[in-house]
Specification:
Keywords: Amino-acid biosynthesis, Branched-chain amino acid biosynthesis, Cytoplasm, Leucine biosynthesis, Magnesium, Manganese, Metal-binding, NAD, Oxidoreductase. It comes from Streptomyces longisporoflavus. It is a single chain. This protein is an alpha/beta fold. It folds into two domains: about 1-100 and about 265-355, 3-Layer(aba) Sandwich (Isopropylmalate Dehydrogenase); about 125-250, Isopropylmalate Dehydrogenase. The protein is built from twelve helices and twelve strands. The protein has helices spanning about 15-30, 40-50, 55-60, 85-95, 120, 155-175, 190-205, 215-225, 240-245, 300-310, 315-330, 345-355, and strands spanning about 5-10, 35, 65-70, 100-105, 125-130, 140-145, 150, 180-185, 210-215, 235, 260-265, 275-280. It has a ten-stranded mixed β-sheet with strand order 2-1-3-12-11-4-5-10-8-9, sandwiched between helices. The chain is globular and about 50 Å long. The two termini are about 25 Å apart.
Length: about 350
């Protein structure tokens, strides 16, 4: 990794540019980085006619890591065949080959009462959703006529094994008691039956020391709401991971606090994975964009921390950013999504002060 890593920044749409600006100030507070800004989503369609221009993709490929803001306008195009902002994100993931999406979720001290779950249910929760990101329904063959439509879910053994290895690696790093819970719908879907067989076979061959169980996705959704502390590492496919990781927002109290890392290669302890993509899991929230900083930048700031940890191998700086966010929240920082009045700039200043 170079002395001054090159970061490709795609602010996106809606609140994306607002929260990205705050996160970049935090990034520059912990080190020296070269930042190159590029277009994606509706902003790119407006200027170039495509949701992911070649120049943006080239910039991401040349960078050490990519920071992505939220994408989309919330509008449904009149012409279903016209370019959609969200297509830019799917194209970017496919082009970068980021097949492993990590979504850490933990209960933050001082926020136990912020969400709908009782404090004793969330206290001490510390889990990671490991979501396969480049297969399944979102990338399968699809079609639509005036009378019907179809989407195809397909997975190969190799795709399942490579994402499962990352889940087992994370469990090993967490400690000998850390459990992998593989989530599927094997009682109905052929892809889930293959998923379960491949995950179990890999565990038996290479990770017999890591506890493993299998849950149907509906049961997993229920247990995330009733017993989230039962999970350490949740391993699942693309669509299930998308849905379940949004559900986990009830644990810290807001989807605005959740970040994600998308990796194109296995985790390399201490070195970082070049070419990875980092983004908050919240949407572009066009209804609050440009309204005096109503959006929380904390998910974007925590995505910077994940970039420092997994993308650049800068564990100390990552810890500092995460601890600063925790400190600010313990000291009473509450943005609108947490029932408070702090603006995005207030949140940024609180984190910078803690740093």
């Amino acid at each position: 990794m170079s002395t001054h890593p090159r970061i490709a920044v795609l602010p996106g749409d809606g609140i994306g540019p607002e929260v990205m600006a705050c996160a970049l100030e935090v990034l520059h507070a912990v080190g020296d980085f070269t930042v190159d800004e590029h277009l994606i989503g509706a902003a790119a369609i407006d200027k170039t006619g495509t949701p992911l221009p070649d120049a943006s993709l080239d910039g991401c490929r040349a960078a050490d890591a990519t920071l992505l803001g939220a994408v989309g306008t919330g509008a449904v195009p009149a012409d279903p065949d016209s370019p959609r902002p969200e297509q830019g994100v799917l194209e970017l993931r496919r082009a970068l080959g980021v097949y492993a999406n990590l979504r850490p979720v933990r209960a933050i001290p001082g926020l136990e009462d912020a969400g709908p779950l009782k404090a004793d249910r969330v206290r001490g929760v510390d889990l990671v959703v490991v979501r396969e990101l480049t297969g399944g329904l979102y990338f399968g063959r699809r079609g639509r006529t005036a009378h019907d439509a179809f989407d195809t879910c397909a997975y190969t053994r190799d795709e399942i094994e490579r994402i499962a290895r990352i889940a087992f690696t994370l469990a090993e790093a967490k400690g000998p008691a850390a459990r992998v819970t593989s989530v599927d719908k094997a009682n109905v879907l052929a892809t889930s039956q293959l998923w379960r067989d491949v995950v179990q076979g890999l565990a038996d061959r290479e990770y017999p020391h890591v506890p493993l169980d299998h849950l149907l996705v509906d049961t997993a959704a229920m247990r995330l709401a009733t017993e989230p502390s039962a999970f350490d590492i949740i391993l699942t496919e693309n669509m299930f991971g998308d849905i379940l990781s949004d559900e986990t927002a009830v644990i810290p109290g807001s989807i605005g606090l959740l970040a994600s890392a998308s990796l194109p290669a296995p985790i390399d302890a201490g070195e970082g994975v070049r070419g990875a993509l980092f983004e908050p899991i919240h949407g572009s929230a066009p209804d609050i964009a440009g309204r005096g900083g109503l959006a929380s930048p904390l998910g974007m700031i925590l995505s910077v921390a994940l970039m420092l940890r997994y993308g650049l191998g800068r564990t100390g700086e990552a810890d500092a950013v995460e601890h600063a966010v925790d400190h600010a929240l313990r000291e009473g920082l509450r943005t609108a999504d947490l029932g408070g009045t702090a603006t995005s700039h207030d949140a940024k200043r609180a984190v910078l002060a803690a740093l």
